Design the sequence.
């Protein structure tokens, strides 16, 4: 007996969408209207819709790492430079390559496009500054003078203005001002910095220039006499600095604010007039690695700014107050997705809108499925391996290589409140310490709604033990629990997975020792052992609808077990690598599994057949989760891709029924055309239906009738139809000719149709056909074979003619003799 829910529509068709990595560090750029985001992704560049987080374009690289890039303010161009020394200019939105050329003798390090999207300035490791026309993709200026690598660059110019300047900073600690009109260096700003200059910006009227460097100071320079006006101590090595628009966050007309970002990982604001910081101390997330600000993206027309962090995260701050509230946080690269689960409260439609991710790091990321904004839950000191969420989504359990488990409680109505500010959502509730090895499985009590909090937690570890922990009733501050309710020696090898039954009476553990054990939650005694897998078991999950569990193993199989008698009732084979995760869906009527082969498979529990194979990953798929409404399954893998598989079976059935009905109507219409000998309409309809046999029979009938002399096909009307085909129809017909031409019985039809096409269309028309070379390569040898056979038949016919003539002569001779 296998678990099957009655009157359940099996899921057989899925539409997928994905959250893909788009940033691996380095340069990022945003258009002024905040619609486009361009980021470096290894040797490629990803163009993303900033409002939705969806990928728009992927610009393939040239084989070398991207060193810098820039998106024009108007969003019409993206300029990319790489270690190959090539500079490539693409036109958007079609992502058309305008020009690719060698820009410098060394890699381009920094780049800036002016506010009018006319000029782009580049600074390279060869110490040279160049200016380029963006639309024309040609060099307008070349400036030499720096003795080190160019580390910062900025263009000042206004549309219709007479003053155009470029400021460049170098690791020689000097700043040079280049006049584009005079085509020369007009000033060298020395004695301001003692380390690399990393940030440069002109004031809106061009009267001031600020420079920030790794010497922990910001210098203010006058562009009238090129003298140092002020030095502001910022107490951190800077990577960027710039002006905010006049009047933002200050009531003084004479005052203006500047922003800075650097090694401390926070954006700070400073008063230009007083030189003092006005940003309150910001609470930074204490992560396992030091995170700094590598760049800040800001336009004068904006009411916010975007900080680019060294951990490949983009943080959007609103400029509504000096504490710079965070309104959005985008993770450019989530890393390897080890485990995931839907989390957070269920909305009015029964849907959870957040995902909790274990991403091969000590931090847990909670990401919005709508906006892709994320927050970080910091607390673990080593990599988080597993997570679990309560039924109501308000409690999150996590565990990992730090030998500890933690419970987090949802404390906010969402990660974005009505004021637009970011909130963590989950706060640390309790920590459970006691294991002597990494924790491979964690499960939280299921009956939370009846108690408003999870009463217990189960953990399984590489120390071969399983522990039950009592969760404190209430905790205003995070508490640490050191004593478990019980500890049991569970397996002979590592424990990979733990799950709790829906009624909280039993829990299951899966181990590398190839067994799964069922335990009593009450006393921790073994009540059953599931044996049958030939390799370690990676996953175990209870059914919410019957007394069954599903397991996935390194032996590439999925098994369903009856926990009444602890026997295997069904085995599913189809994965080509270890099955890393498996769970019940469709009210227990189906199973979804994920494997090391990068595939997600959906199985019919009753028949044992695979209903669907889903492929959108390029690496192992470690994790699976089901949305609370049972309409979406999400998978996460080692390729950092999170894929949402939405059930569209009903829509597909309706679409298929409509298509079948339409097909029946068209086939009847085709039969009517053939009966009435309306060959033009019949041919066009047969082509649109892509019915090779019907089309072949149609041509055979026309050729057999041979009603009109001077027509290749037998009817001039048919010749005219073939000579007026659209490109798509021509491509399809050529493929049919290629297939017919391989058989001697149908080759005559193929050659006649081909003859009409060759006489009707110029060579240029055939060159427009997709994959024309492969089609012709298949046509030529068979055509030569048919031609050779026809010639041989013709030669043999001469012998027959000769023989008949000789027989006639002999016959006539005998008649004469008589």
Sequence:
């Amino acid at each position: 007996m296998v678990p099957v829910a009655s009157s359940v529509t099996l899921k057989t068709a899925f539409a997928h969408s994905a959250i893909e990595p788009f940033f691996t560090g380095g340069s990022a750029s945003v258009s002024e209207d905040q619609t486009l985001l361009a980021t470096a992704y290894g040797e490629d560049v990803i163009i993303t819709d900033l409002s939705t987080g969806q990928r728009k374009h992927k610009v393939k690289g040239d084989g070398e790492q991207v060193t810098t890039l820039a998106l024009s303010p108007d969003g019409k161009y993206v300029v990319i430079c790489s270690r190959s020394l090539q500079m490539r200019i693409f036109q958007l939105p079609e992502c058309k390559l305008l020009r690719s050329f060698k820009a410098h003798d060394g890699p381009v390090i920094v780049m800036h496009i002016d506010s009018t999207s006319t000029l782009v300035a580049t600074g390279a490791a060869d110490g040279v500054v160049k200016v380029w026309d963006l639309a024309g993709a040609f060099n307008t200026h070349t400036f030499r003078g720096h003795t080190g690598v160019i580390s910062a660059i900025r263009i000042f110019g206004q549309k219709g203005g007479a003053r155009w300047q470029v400021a460049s900073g170098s690791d020689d600690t000097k700043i040079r001002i280049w006049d584009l009109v005079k085509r020369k260096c007009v000033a060298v700003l020395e004695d301001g910095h003692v380390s690399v200059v990393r940030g440069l910006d002109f004031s809106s009227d061009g009267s001031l220039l600020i420079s920030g460097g790794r010497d922990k100071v910001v210098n203010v320079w006058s562009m009238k006499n090129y003298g140092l006006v002020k030095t502001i101590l910022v107490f951190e090595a800077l990577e960027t600095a710039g002006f905010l628009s006049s009047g933002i966050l200050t009531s003084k007309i004479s005052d203006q604010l500047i922003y800075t970002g650097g090694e401390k990982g926070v954006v700070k604001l400073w008063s230009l007039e007083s030189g003092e910081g006005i940003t309150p101390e910001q609470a930074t997330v204490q992560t396992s690695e030091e995170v700094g600000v590598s760049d800040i993206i800001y336009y004068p027309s904006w009411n916010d700014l975007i900080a680019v962090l060294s951990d490949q995260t983009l943080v959007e701050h609103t400029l509504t107050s000096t504490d710079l509230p965070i309104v959005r946080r985008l993770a450019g690269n989530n890393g390897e997705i080890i485990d995931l689960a839907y989390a957070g409260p269920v909305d009015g439609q029964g849907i959870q809108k957040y995902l909790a991710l274990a991403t091969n790091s000590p931090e847990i990321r909670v990401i919005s499925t709508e906006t892709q904004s994320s927050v970080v839950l910091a607390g673990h000191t080593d990599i988080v391996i597993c997570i679990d969420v309560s039924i109501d989504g308000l409690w999150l359990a996590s565990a990992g290589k730090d030998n500890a488990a933690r419970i987090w409680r949802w404390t906010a109505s969402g990660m974005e409140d009505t004021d637009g500010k970011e909130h963590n959502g989950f706060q640390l509730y309790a920590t459970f310490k006691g294991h002597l090895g990494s924790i491979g499985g964690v499960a939280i009590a299921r009956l939370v709604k009846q108690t408003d909090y999870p009463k217990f937690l189960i953990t399984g570890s590489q120390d071969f033990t399983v522990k039950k922990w009592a969760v404190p009733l209430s905790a205003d501050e995070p508490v640490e629990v050191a004593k478990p309710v019980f500890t049991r020696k569970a397996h002979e090898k590592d424990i990979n997975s733990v799950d709790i039954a829906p009624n909280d009476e039993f829990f299951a553990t899966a181990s590398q020792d190839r067994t799964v054990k069922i335990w009593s939650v009450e006393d921790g005694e073994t009540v059953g052992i599931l044996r049958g897998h030939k390799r370690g078991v990676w996953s175990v999950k209870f059914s919410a609808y019957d007394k069954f569990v599903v397991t996935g193993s390194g032996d590439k199989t999925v098994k369903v077990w009856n926990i009444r008698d602890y026997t295997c009732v069904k085995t599913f084979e189809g994965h080509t690598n270890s099955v890393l995760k498996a769970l019940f869906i469709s009210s227990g009527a189906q199973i979804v599994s994920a494997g090391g082969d990068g595939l997600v498979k959906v199985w019919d529990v009753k028949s044992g057949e695979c209903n669907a194979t889903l492929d959108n990953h390029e690496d192992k798929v470690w994790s699976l989760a089901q949305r609370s409404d049972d309409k979406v399954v999400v998978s996460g893998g080692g390729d950092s891709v999170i894929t949402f598989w939405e059930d569209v079976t009903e829509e597909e059935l309706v679409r298929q029924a409509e298509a079948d009905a339409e097909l029946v109507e068209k086939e009847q219409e085709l039969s009517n055309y053939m009966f009435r000998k309306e060959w033009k309409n019949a041919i066009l309809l047969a082509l649109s239906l892509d019915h090779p046999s019907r089309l072949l029979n149609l041509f055979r009938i026309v050729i057999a009738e041979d009603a009109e002399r001077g027509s290749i096909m037998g009817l001039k009307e048919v010749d005219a139809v073939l000579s007026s085909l659209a490109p798509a129809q021509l491509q399809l017909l050529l493929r049919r000719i290629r297939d017919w031409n391989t058989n001697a019985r149908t080759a005559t039809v193929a050659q006649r149709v081909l003859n009409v096409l060759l006489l009707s269309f110029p060579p240029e028309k055939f060159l427009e056909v997709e994959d024309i070379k492969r089609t012709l390569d298949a046509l030529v040898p068979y055509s030569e074979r048919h031609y050779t056979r026809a010639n041989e038949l013709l030669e043999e016919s001469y012998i027959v003619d000769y023989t008949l003539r000789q027989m006639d002569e002999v016959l006539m001779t005998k008649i004469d003799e008589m």
In short: The CA atoms of residues 22 and 332 lie 5 Å apart. Residues 416-422 have pLDDT under 50 and may be disordered. The first helix runs from residue 649 to 675. The chain is about 15% helix and 40% strand.
